[in-house]
Design brief:
Helices cover 31% and strands 19% of the residues. By secondary structure, it is an alpha/beta fold. Strand 4 and strand 5 (158-164) form a beta hairpin. Pathway: Carbohydrate degradation; 2-deoxy-D-ribose 1-phosphate degradation; D-glyceraldehyde 3-phosphate and acetaldehyde from 2-deoxy-alpha-D-ribose 1-phosphate: step 1/2.
């Protein structure tokens, strides 16, 4: 019998809690996503996360340490060489990414772009590192005029294709991305994720839609989610989760529109009866505010999430475990528009806790995967130490 019959895992995408010791290697000295937002945003308060013990993890302006935190708390170090979503999530589920994913700081090789253009029957605009909203301002109008698609990358291993939904129908954009996926599975053009970036609107007021779709490579080894699936347990993926693991170890996938929908869908799974994992990624923090370097918007999104904590907690049963964490940082006041190399917070709640205890600085995100494996009695991951006995 597992100690907890259901584990609910929330990844607040990019909600880091201070620079990692190796942050200088990533040009991220001084980064502190939560800390800088807390300092800068007027009226900032996270009363419910504070009561769980968020302010006990690191000093945060306006989020004081709780005398008697309701949750166990700590922070986690990332051992993998990377600060992207894929690396962070794969590590959470027990993989150590020791070879960095290939990136394309100067754009993609001409041979790749030529072959891509030939296969899709459209030309490419851009082919450089860019912010996804800036590049629409720059090339969106030309795209609408010519029908050429916008290809761009970032500091991550991503091949992103942006197209207006009324110029390139969604089904075609998805087909185009399948072609990109196929070409970038070759070693010479290796890319971790191809991302469809549809948008709508007129020049000057383009908006990206929720029809984004990610095509990830498969994890290089079985994750704890595969182990759960193999053991006949549930492994429910909400939001981007199924994309991030390329459907590996996913027993049911639920798509979401935004953060609040992600919380709603997670609450929906709380009403179902199952044994296993329900895992959600809340991507708005990262995509809508972190990369956009918008501390105000980020702060509001955090407060909006905070307001849902009481509902999440009251929906938990006696045998449920709630884990709240993140996958990397994305400090909205840091230079550039990329992720930041940071610790991630760890909050663990279940009904039996009198006063939460300090789980320390965990040496890898994989401690979560190891704990889940330990709880359900499946094969533990190669890295990670279970903290189940401390709960
Ligand atoms: O600037 P946008 O298009 O939001 O892109 C961001 O989203 C990508 C995937 O998460 C990241 O690699 C970063 O480039
Ligand atoms: Mn992420
Ligand atoms: Mn991101």
């Amino acid at each position: 019998m597992p100690r907890f019959s259901r584990v609910f895992l929330i990844v607040m995408d990019s909600v880091g809690i201070g620079e990692l010791p190796d942050a200088p290697r990533f040009q991220d000295e001084g980064a502190h996503t939560l800390g800088h937002i807390a300092e800068r945003v007027e009226g900032f308060a996270l009363p419910h996360l504070q009561a769980l013990g968020l302010g006990n993890i690191a000093p945060l302006a306006n989020v004081p340490a709780a005398q008697q935190p309701k949750a166990h708390y700590g922070k986690m170090n990332e051992v993998s060489i990377g600060k992207d979503t894929t690396t962070g999530h794969w590590e959470i589920m027990g993989l150590h990414v020791s070879t960095p994913f290939r990136t394309y700081p100067d754009g993609f090789p001409t041979e790749l772009i030529h072959e891509f253009e030939e296969r899709i029957g459209r030309k490419v605009l851009g082919n450089k590192v860019a912010s996804g909203t800036d590049i629409l301002d720059e090339l969106g109008e030309e795209h609408m005029r010519t029908g050429n698609v916008i290809v761009y990358t970032s500091a991550d291993s991503v091949f992103q294709v942006a197209a207006h939904e009324e110029v390139v129908p969604l089904e075609e954009l998805y087909r185009i991305c399948q072609v990109a996926r196929e070409l970038t599975l070759r070693d010479e053009f290796a890319v971790t994720r191809v991302i469809a970036r549809p948008f709508v609107g007129q020049p000057g007021s383009f908006v990206r839609t929720a029809n984004r779709h990610d095509y990830s490579v498969k994890p290089f080894a079985p994750t704890v989610m595969n182990r759960l699936q193999d053991a006949g347990l549930a492994s429910i993926a909400i939001g981007k989760i199924s994309d991030i693991y390329a459907d590996e170890g996913v027993t049911k996938a639920i798509r979401t529109k935004d953060n609040m929908d992600g919380v709603d869908q997670l609450l929906g799974t709380m009403k179902e009866s199952f044994t296993g994992l329900s895992f959600v990624n809340l991507v708005d923090f990262d995509a809508k505010f972190g990369h956009r370097r918008d501390p105000e918007g980020y702060g509001k999104a955090l407060m909006e999430f905070d307001a849902r904590i009481p509902e999440l907690i009251s929906s938990l049963g006696e045998e449920d475990l709630l884990i709240i964490t993140a996958d990397h940082g994305n400090d909205p006041v840091h230079h550039g528009t990329d992720h930041t190399r940071e610790y991630v917070p760890l909050l663990i709640y279940h009904k039996g806790i009198a006063t939460g205890s300090h789980l320390g600085i965990r040496s890898t995100f994989a401690d979560i995967g190891a704990t889940i494996a330990d709880n359900f009695g499946v094969q533990p991951p190669a890295i990670g130490e279970s903290f189940l006995s401390k709960l």
